[in-house]
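[User]
Protein folding is very new to me. Any chance you could explain this protein sequence and its structure tokens? I have pasted everything here:
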Amino acid sequence: MSLRLNLRGATAACAMAATVVSGSAAASTINQNTSWTINRTGATSTYRVVAYGDSIFAGYNGGLFSVARRAEPYISGEYLGKQWNANIEVVRRTKSGAKADDIYNNKIIAEKSYMQATNAKVVMFEMCGNDYLQARTAFKDQTGTCSYSGLDSALAACTTYMEKGMQAINQYATSAKVKVIMNIYYPGYNADNVQTSCKDASTGATINRRDKFLPYLLKSNWRACNLAATYGFKCADSFAEMMGSDYDSNGDGQIDVDALRFQAGESETAYVNRILALKATLRDSNTHYASASASYDYLQSDDTHPTYYKSTISTGSGSATPDFTDAQIVSGKNTEWNKWGHEKSGWSISTYNPSAP
């Protein structure tokens, strides 16, 4: 019998907050910016991690003025502090509900000064989730003959602004040792395993929503990682981390999460076909298997945002000491590294932390 652990993060009952990330509320966004310094005893230097993105990097938890402290940028920063024996200032410039163009224009470009600081050593970004959530909502509401133009437009916009984001960060983050993009997972993977109300123009039949959406997401994630290779970025594969088990479930000799990861040099078509061939190993993030007998819930009750460890914080600035002692971090992994959605993706980003400032 599997051990089912309910590790959902808290979500506030706030109607306004619910519209922030709702696909039907396309114009509803909210800035959720934080700057928290992780102070290490005896450290004499302070370096900066800068993160641009939407509700994922924000640590959205259903509230307007509080977020999860331990979202991906913070987690990566805590690992970095141990590695460098330094204080790490984690600056999150994020807008929950924002699409890719909004993040590029109003965060990466408009707030470029944060990555221009000479102590900014790691710069990361993520985007596109809201482009696809909104396109999915519009598609789900269709009747009559299915139109895929909205999905095509979301993929095209995402590709454009991921590249623009990398170009801008390369231009402005001149002191950065490492630049990272994180790709996106598939929230609602099980919920989408239903037929559409609309009918395909060529077959006259309804189609499975998940079967239609998944290749779009895979193309987007391949492009994120391929662009990263082109522009000197690292690519943190959130899709693999969130949706692949941490053991070999199909007996192919590979841990599922490793088998699902992007492979450098692989074509888009080859990547999409490989992941689709491994579809039986994909798991809805509400049930992430750490082993054959233990699972953890990686999504909050909204079936969209990652679960998180520890407390929330108010938007704004503050400081804290590390949550884990050095002894609790073994081989680059803290004791909670694969029990929560944010922890898993944050650990993945931390594997690219530079060895020295």
Notes: The chain has one domain: 10-185+194-210+226-239+305-350. The chain has twelve helices and 15 strands.
